[in-house]
Amino acid sequence: MIEVRRGSELGESHRHAITRIFVEGFGPDLVFFSKDPGKLTEALAHMLVLDLFHVGLVAGEPAGIVACTDGRQRAVRHDARELRRHLGLVRGTVAHFAFTRMFERPLSYGGERMASLEFVATGSRFRGQGVASAVIEHLLALPQYDEYVLDTIADINTPALRLYEKLGFTEFKRTKVHHKMITGIGAYVGMRLVKAP
Ligand SMILES: CC(C)(COP(=O)(O)OP(=O)(O)OC[C@H]1O[C@@H](n2cnc3c(N)ncnc32)[C@H](O)[C@@H]1OP(=O)(O)O)[C@@H](O)C(=O)NCCC(=O)NCCS
Questions:
Q1: Beta-carbon neighbour count of residue 132 at 10 Å?
Q2: pLDDT, mean of residues 146-161
Q3: What's the whole-model pTM score?
Q4: 62 C-alpha to ligand 1 centroid (Å)
Q5: Domain topology for 2-145
Q6: Ligand 1 — pocket residues by CB below 6 A?
């Protein structure tokens, strides 16, 4: 049985466990900053706006996360000093500029009755057990939203694309990128779901 709670309801005592899932999900994209998941967890924990993270719990343990916002607030807000404290001057400074560009610009999607879903991740040992599905289904049932958008999904991320398709999302945007030789990614996909009236 998967229970879904807001990170802010679980409270500060769960911040590290929630961040650990973030790191397990996105650690491969963060290896420049550190290859050590424990160090990354320490460095990034302060950034997560817990009120916007919805957490899937398996037997009471955080197993998966999805951030949901109407765009007024971003789900991640970092402190450059804190990044430098954990990652060192050079990597901390690079992280500051990278995170500002990637995570903290205004969102293209979101607004009244429209939610933007971000940072969908399931802890490695909980994958394939329906955790991400349960958290997203919970968000799709929220009465305040009619439309949901997932932006910037790598076209090679088959688990994510299948997950979203299975839940009823359809592609509405595909932006070609020019780093396929390096990353293997040919395009970023945007998907959306409009609730039936
Ligand atoms: C994508 C991710 C969140 C899926 O989480 P999950 O909890 O394992 O997903 P679920 O168990 O709810 O799976 C639901 C559906 O997704 C698809 N899916 C999940 N993992 C898959 C995989 N490895 N290969 C193919 N399809 C997969 C399937 O359609 C699955 O339905 P099924 O079990 O009936 O076959 C997880 O693999 C993850 O954390 N990946 C790293 C972070 C990431 O890439 N996030 C997405 C960013 S856009």
A1: 26
A2: 96
A3: 0.96
A4: 16
A5: Aminopeptidase (3.40.630)
A6: 25, 64, 120-122, 127-133, 153, 157-160, 162-163, 166
